[in-house]
Fold each of these.
Amino acid sequence: MKHDLENIRSALSSYQVEMTPRPDGSVVLTVANAERQLVRVLDGSCSTQEVIRLIHFDMALDENAESVNEAVKHCSATQLPTYSREPLFRTRASRLWAMRKLEKK
């Protein structure tokens, strides 16, 4: 398993956390608090700290403005949410520079 499940459980101690292993090695994480329930699959595609941050963000987010202000505290300025979870680049040239392949000759 690629995630530190005890670290996740201790970081989310203010919520009811259930972890169910799946046959493919991933874990179904169910986080509940009062009337809100969140279900996520941990498959190792994201770091443990990122999983914890995203769950805090989703649990803090609600429909009123006060909860939006609380949820924004869990946002990361360096990793803005994108569909592919890839970093954002200012220009195409900076993206190409970051993605270049360096080879030893």
Note: The chain has a mean pLDDT of 76.
Amino acid sequence: MKIGLVLKELHRSENDLAHELLQVSDRHKVDHEIFYVARDLAVWSQQHVRDIAAIGEHYGQKLDHEPEGEAGLAARVLEKGSEMVGRMSTPGLLLLRDLREVHMKAAGVSLDWEMLAQAAQGIKHRDLLAVTKRCHPDTLRQMRWANAKLKESSTQILVS
């Protein structure tokens, strides 16, 4: 079975999504809604990381139960580049870019949850199906939040 490989990728992707949400929160501290909601949404992905690690053991994966705290060296270099670009452009454009990135990462995570749910149904693994049913709706909400904020902000940012 290749379910373990999907769990490993999902674990990495949920860590990445949580990290992205925390970065968005930090970059937009002045916008209290973005700051606090992005942090709350990151906590969901961090919990998903724990859930994936727990179920991953049943599929031959030894995954870290704790979400990644600090970004790796390569990610930090990319973040510095992003910060420099963000300083050169307007904060509004940076917000749109950040929301787009959150949406795209959440969409990828959502597809992984969907694949796992289909596999769990097919092989009748109730524990795995329960994890997908518990976590996937959170990911869909993360994606909808980013999309809604993007819709709400786009006209004003792009036209002004």
Note: The helical segments are 3-27, 32-56, 73-88, 91-123, 126-159.
Amino acid sequence: MQRRRRQYPLGYRRARSLVVVIAMFWLWLWFGGAATLGLLHGSPVHEVLAVYGLAVVVLVSIPAALLAVATLVLTHPRATVVRLPATTASQAGARRLDGKAS
């Protein structure tokens, strides 16, 4: 008995969102957002922590982006068309009034 492969679009959507967030971070970084760290007028400890945090995010974003792109490629949803039964507005309203699940 052959089993049909199930599609899980949520993983694809999460991977796509992660790629968008990482791309926005790198755009912020390239367009001078990291220069705002120089505007920190706090203690040297705060500046070191900010630079360390930025370095960690840069190093973590590279493999995360690669894994997200691999997930996008491997789990691309198939274009399937599901035909639903046509109902008029009055039939849909009648179903809601009867309490039946729509």
Note: Residues 9-81 form one domain.
Amino acid sequence: MSLSIASINIERSRHLPRVAAFIERERPQLLCLQELCERDIPFFEALMGGTMAFAPMARYPEDGPANVVGVGLLARGEQLAEVSAEYYSGSPERIQEMAFVTLEGRRMADPLSIAEVMLSATVEGFRIAVTHLNVTPLGTSTPYQRESAGKLIALAQAQATEAGGLLLTGDFNAPRGRATFDLIAEHFIDGVPGHYTSSIDGSLHRAGEIPFMVDGLFHTPGYRLEDARLTTGVSDHCALSCRLRKA
């Protein structure tokens, strides 16, 4: 038994035609989305023929009234089982408007204004979780990011123990080779092949080419990945795809 998965930071509603074309071409059984606008959930449910699980993280100030952004899980043609949304900063009852700060000459989201959540579900006997870790200036590993990563790891380990395995995917905003990434990789297997050096799509990202491998497929030893790959031309981050099996 195996499960085909795609994980994408879709940058809100900016690239919906590209994302839809990728989904229709690749036809993943499970879709894991970051920076998903709540208003676009019906769009993806129509594409996949399933019901989206959604966990809000922030209200985006430039998107008008329908501006709630978060992470989502959606299985093709079926219901997700045992869905849970575990917040490791903030809470769903206190979703804030995203604030922005300027650090080292760059405008970036203030991580304290964004809730962080691990959204998990069971699909075809596999336990899958998606998250979006807080952003830092120039990919640096900050104490707050490492603190969040530690909380995320504890939640993921508990899920893995209960389910007998876990694939943790998403945008970790933590470049491979730096302290936050290494902290996660101490506890879970990095499933993205080493020849990939960046998951930023320079043709679509506002900052252009950045050599940061920040999107991840982390898994426990009882799971194994086949055909793990990145695809450009989908969003400002590459789409991550794999086929998941039990070891």
Note: The chain has one domain: 2-246.
